[in-house]
Amino acid sequence: MAVIALDRAPAIALPRGIRRSRRTVNATATVAITGLFVLALVPLGSLLWTAASRGLARFDVEFFTNSMLGVVGGGGGALHAIVGTGLITGATILLSVPVGVTAAVYLVEYGRGWFKRTVTFLVDVMTGIPSIVAGLFAYAVFSLILGPGMRSGVAGALALSLLMIPVVVRSSEEMLRLVPDELREASYALGVPKYRTILKVVLPTSISGIVAGVMIGIARIVGETAPLLLVAGYTDVMNYNLFSERITTLPVFIYSQWKNKGMDVAAYDDRAWTAALVLIAFVLLLNLVSRLVARLFAPKAR
Amino acid sequence: MAPGGSLRGGNKNGERAGDRAARSIATAAGATILVALAGVGIFLLARGLPALRAGEGDLPDGATNFWQLAGPLAFGSIWAAALALLFAVPVAVAVALFITMYAPRRFAGPLGAIVDLLAAIPSVVYGLWGLMVFAPLTAGLYGWLGDRVGWFPLFAGKTSATGRTILTAALVLAIMVLPIIASVCREVFIQTPTLSVEAALALGATRWEMIRMAVFPFARSGIVSGAMLGLGRALGETMAVAMVLSPTPFLMTFRLLNSTNPNTIAASIAQNFPEAYGMEVNALIGLGLLLFAITFAVNYLARRVVARAHPGG
Fold first, then answer.
1. Residues of B with CB below 8 A from A40's CB?
2. Number of H helices, E strands in chain A
3. Which residues span the domain enclosing B170?
4. What ipTM was estimated for this complex?
């Protein structure tokens, strides 16, 4: 293998000084690169440690069973934010998964010519939309219908869909392209129409990858704060209705705990860190499960 | 025709009814994306344009016209993002090199996943961490820098005691964009032609010389496009900056350590929108449109760089 003697300067008859300086440069580079790699992980370690140590203070039953209704100072919980996160995320999935997967099917199975190129380009553009711009867009749309100053969960879901659709399209597209053409050919040879081939052969073969991609998409949007701060707003109380009134998610809960502190600062900080811990744990779990799904249920490659 | 050549493109002649329907549905989904993006442009324009004509009294912070508001914020966005890149790119390149060239192959996957964890953490959590853990840590360092190297223009002025400066915000941004740049770099480093690598080693190059002679020349455009994607992300990043930075309206300065700092477009929208009404809302939407235009230009350039380096790929 080529990697064996890399760190030793070769034994060619060069002047001793040159050999030594080359070796020194190489050693310095190794140390610097390793050092920078470790440096990059220090913030991650510090962040996870802080979230774990400070978040555990309020990691109790009350946190998961209470809203902030009437809470000043200590106590209270984030049930309203957890429920809100579930509702808004669910609505976002309903909006973006059908559009995203079907658009991927279009790009891989049907797309041709300028329209395909345009859609591919626009998905790239969508990937780069800043989340706060997505929020402003949802506000602009819904304030036309509901009037200025509106806040609602569906507007939040619309904003988040704009961020999730490109993730779903990209990953599904990649998975659909992995399906071997032999499978399609075999299906056509049996006289199966194209749409049935897609439904019965192509999609089932790639479903694990698509599900994994959707999970990555969820992980991306579940931590979004800015768009929801604009259009879903913050409330202290339970709201199960996506179509009216303010509705809180966990990230917005964290922000508002920091932003609108009462006299008992520690109580607000503790709640914020506990919510952060719950959110991080959920996002990491999603990432982990998506890897497992992609690996365990992957089509057997031959 | 090559096998499979006609399988995906599809042909319109002799299509069955079911196939026609399926094609229409799939195409409609593609069209939805087009409509959605056109909608973003149209709605932001329609709601943002009135702010361009608005005068004193209607705009946030008592600005006399839209550009007096937008100019310093655009400056702040670009300055903070540029600083973030300055820190993030070297570290990201080193991280990618470590994973692809130094660490044993077996660990490449897990190490990459750990770095990707940095991207999975929500920005509001970065904000909280930056504010409560990181900024206090930096405050001491800033004090020292201000005392010793205060003559240097970037470090001039009264040093912030809280650490909530644009330098801190840029460092937090750097941490957040690092994984994107690192993952793009990793992808191109791994594709370095084995022949070049082995040729360099066979000629007696050390590992670092091999990286300089074989990996970097091959990966240059990849690094640039990764940096541009990171720039786009840093420009649009909202919550971390909104929480960490303590901003001053209309301020435009390159100074890094002061308690008065320029604000960014995204952070200013997040800070002002919840309480905004009337023309202020239009002004903030106009700012959003400006941010969209800037990030679009940056991302577009990034992809052009990639397209030029790998034609057809």
1. 91-92, 94-95, 115, 118, 175, 178, 182
2. 12, 0
3. 54-309
4. 0.87
